Amino acid sequence: MCGIVAYIGNENAYPVLMEGLKRLEYRGYDSAGIAISNENLKIYKKKGKVTDLEDSIDSELFGKIGIGHTRWATHGEPNDNNAHPHLSGDGKIVLVHNGIIENHETLKQALIKLGHKFQSDTDTEVLVHLIEEYKTTNNISLEDAIQLALQKVIGAYAIVVYSTDEPDLIIGAKKSSPLVLGLGDDEMFFASDAFPILKYTNKVIYLEDEQVAVIKSNGDYYIRDIYNNIVNPNIKELALTLELIEKAGYEHYMLKEIFQQPTTLTESIRGRYHPVEGWVMVGGLQKYIKKISNTDKIIIISSGTSWHAGLIGEYLIEDLARIPVEVEYSSEFRYRNPIINENNIVIAISQSGETADTLAALELAKAKSATTYGIVNVVGSAISRITDSGSYTHAGPEIGVASTKAFTSQLAVLTLIALHLAVEKGTIPRSYLMQLLAEMETLPDLISKVLEDNDKIKFVASEIKDSTNALYLGRGYNFPVALEGALKLKEISYIHAEGYPAAEMKHGPIALIDENMPVIVIATNKSAYSKIVSNVQEIKARKGKVISIVTEGDKKIKELSDYVIEIPYIAEPLSPILSVIPLQLLAYHIAVMRGCNVDQPRNLAKSVTVE
Ligand code: G6P
User: Is 604 in the pocket of ligand 1 (CB under 6 A)?
Assistant: First the structure.
């Protein structure tokens, strides 16, 4: 949901901004813009990708101060005019923004009465005019004006502001949307995340809500809050390296991230269990283990792919640890007056750790005194900071908009949480625990084995790439995998796809099946095997094209299917981690064959920091 980058120092800001914006494009990519100052202020804005902006600028610009923005439109369609940066009426103040100013309409009407004229349809432009209004009528500094303006604002913001009246500084501030300050040698940065900064420094400060940071060209900086209280900065050293955020020879980030899964899964489970000694220890759980194992309800909140992980988490925790679990979309939970009390545990699952709905749902859970737990990938992100405890998934930076490695890492962590609780509650026989831990140990190798079928999956993709619809079916642990497979296909190939519990097919989707409908059946479960065989027969009877994901050695479903992808045997609770991989690859290849932008699918953004 919009990316921000800003530079002040002794070097040329232009390449820093352009490279930084490209690294931030996963956050939004419908328009981009920069402002560069070299005695006078120049602004360039363009609908489209950062490369469109770059192409529209004749030659490399020069200026030692600059701010840039890549947009995911909320208010006002994506066009040159609505692109950021936005300018004050007097042309002196320039601002970029990530978030939504909810009371922008009221503020705008008041500003219009005071004579302000607006050029765009955005909520952001209101903010720059409000800052201008405070600055000129009170004759105060840019910093003071920003503080006053932000006291009036309702909503979410990460902003960076520059004024030609105070040409040696840039100011950044945030609430709900992220903003990182980078501390270089005689140069300073702001960015929505550390990716654009990484090349120049590994020292950063993650700003907290309602903090306002002033950075100067000589490397000085200070932070206050919007009420002018001094804030002591908490400087962090980044563990990230540039290598981790490059494509590493892969054509797309998504493909790289799919193929990274043997490694990322190893990282997710490392040190959290012992297959021979037979113990499981998820660090974050320990502090609340009594409370969690005795709770009468765990509620999992999340969105998108993370919600699918949550559904599998429900199967895992109920099956293994016998604790009741509810899974909710964060966006529904936060507005539906849920029944929740101080005995409940609310687990938020989020790759980015900054999804606005999940953050708001967590705030609600905290207000009702529930214990909150985060399963988060991005270290130091908002959700990891506001939860009582949690576990990182350690999948490393995920840049492709369609989530892949983050999902399998979430599943690995959820499995270990369920096993840890099961041991604590005594709900799992020792022999079964030992079996699952031993199989957990083999998972990275088994993932590699599934990935070896890439060419075969690519062939299946070529056979169904022109479909307009697709149906994904699964049962038990693999029903949420069907949902995830359908989501992947929709997201990146724009083919309409639905995931369904296999047996529910009879209650609707069966009406859609004809010879043009590919039906992807995840049929690895032993427990419901004969039932899935019947489901496949029902599809074949209606001439549907069956693509089945089966366990190696399967005979019956193989015979009935048009195309078969085999995965190695694994116990059912662990099976989603393997069965989802062919579906990720299938969606990937179909999208590439259809000429879609795999890493930046239309209308989507990786990090949804608005409602
Ligand atoms: C967006 C992304 C999805 C992601 C969802 C939830 O829709 O495109 O890939 O699953 O947000 O994000 P989170 O960061 O909370 O897991």
Answer: yes
* The two structure tokens encoding residue 348: 């938020």
Instruction: At 265, list the tokens.
Output: 């899964």
Question: How many Cα atoms within 13 Å fall on the side-chain side of residue 427?
Answer: 17
Q: What is the pLDDT of residues 259-312, one digit of tens each?
A: 999 999 999 999 999 999 999 999 999 999 999 999 999 999 999 999 999 999
| Residues paired with residue 280 on neighbouring β-strands, in sequence order | 273
Atom of ligand 1 at shortest range from CA of 406: 16
Tokens of 483: 């949902």
Minimal-distance CA residue to ligand 1 atom 4: 304
* Rg of the chain, C-alpha, whole Å: 25
Entry pTM = 0.87
Q: Please list the residues that pair with 547 across neighbouring strands.
A: 520, 563
Tokens of 248: 């590493």
Give the Å distance between the CA of 107 and the centre of ligand 1: 31
How far, CA to CA in Å, does 102 sit from each of 242, 371, 516?
A: 36, 29, 46
Report whether residue 304 contacts ligand 1, using a CB cutoff of 6 Å. yes
What is the per-residue burial (b if ≥16 Cβ within 10 Å, else e) of 442-477? ebbebbebbbebbeebbebbeebbebebbbbbbbbb
**Residue 358 Cβ contacting ligand 1 at under 6 Å:** yes
410 lines ligand 1 (CB under 6 A): no
More confident call, 80 vs 87: 87
* CA 305 to centroid of ligand 1, rounded, Å: 6
d(CA 302, CA 577): 18
CA 417, distance to chain mean position in Å, is 22
Q: Which residues are catalytic?
A: 2, 606
